[in-house]
Write a structure and sequence with these properties.
The chain has one domain: Spore Coat Polysaccharide Biosynthesis Protein SpsA, Chain A. Helices cover about 35% and strands about 25% of the residues. The radius of gyration is 18 Å and the shape is globular. It is an alpha/beta fold and about 240 residues long.
């Protein structure tokens, strides 16, 4: 089974609100340093560690190519980690990366560049589920009560047991995801994640694999404090 993981890392990360790191003008959250390494590298390491993953494809802004290629080489990764040119949006970046995949690829996963704490066990489970069903995502049940509102007025209270907060990776059969992207381009549809594109095809039901609260998406300065805590915890567990 050939599994390719796409990591879109061409975004500007405006919600972070400050530059990161001060390296050749690069100012995106995925390159912020966490314990001496860019967040993106911590994320890539998780997929390199997963036995089911064949290659990792990172969609980058063209200005970041040279720096990123040197960075990837310096890590001595045991798997192929290659850059492709991203686009102005996440969907364009994933689409560009999707076009570079070998036709003998069985499954393609998409993972946020700034989710470095995904567990290898979760990666394996979502890949296996997608292999069985065609499409699978990672999600967690919300612990807070969720309200549907119009402007500032509550219209309904939604049952939590029927809701999930989606995470990544999201994994699909290659041809299914390619068809979903082609349909979205034809319809000028922009989705918030890859699953929303696949759902529009109405060909398969997307399965949900339980994620973890630790699989956070680092988007705000306050998230970095939590990230340092999780990284310290991971280091302690590895030493145990």
């Amino acid at each position: 089974m050939r599994v390719s993981i796409i990591i879109p890392a061409a975004g500007l990360g405006t919600r972070m609100g400050r530059s990161a790191p001060e390296k050749e003008g690069i100012s995106r959250k995925q390159f912020m340093l966490l314990n001496g390494s860019p967040i993106l590298i911590h994320t890539i390491r998780k997929f390199v560690s997963c036995p089911l993953v064949t290659e990792i494809v990172v969609a980058l802004r063209s200005d970041d190519f040279a720096w990123a290629e040197d960075l990837f080489k310096s890590q001595g990764f045991s798997k192929i980690v290659r850059p492709v040119e991203g686009g102005e949006t996440r969907q364009q970046s994933v689409g560009n990366a999707l076009a570079t995949l070998s036709d003998d690829t069985d499954l393609v996963g998409v993972h946020d560049a700034v989710r470095p704490f995904v567990e290898v066990e979760v990666i394996e489970k979502v890949i296996q589920e997608a292999n069985d069903t065609g499409a699978a995502i990672v999600g967690i049940v919300p612990v807070d009560t969720v309200k549907q509102v119009h402007r500032n007025k509550v219209r309904a209270t939604l049952p939590r047991e029927r809701l999930v907060l989606t995470q990544t990776p999201q994994v699909f059969k290659l041809e299914l995801l390619r068809e979903a992207f082609a349909r979205a381009r034809h319809d000028l549809f922009i989705g918030t994640d890859e699953s929303s594109l696949v759902e529009r095809l109405e060909q398969v039901e997307v399965s949900v694999v339980p994620g973890t609260d630790r699989n956070i998406k680092i988007t705000k300065p306050a998230d970095m404090e939590l990230a340092r805590l999780y990284l310290a915890l991971e280091s302690t567990l590895h030493l145990a």
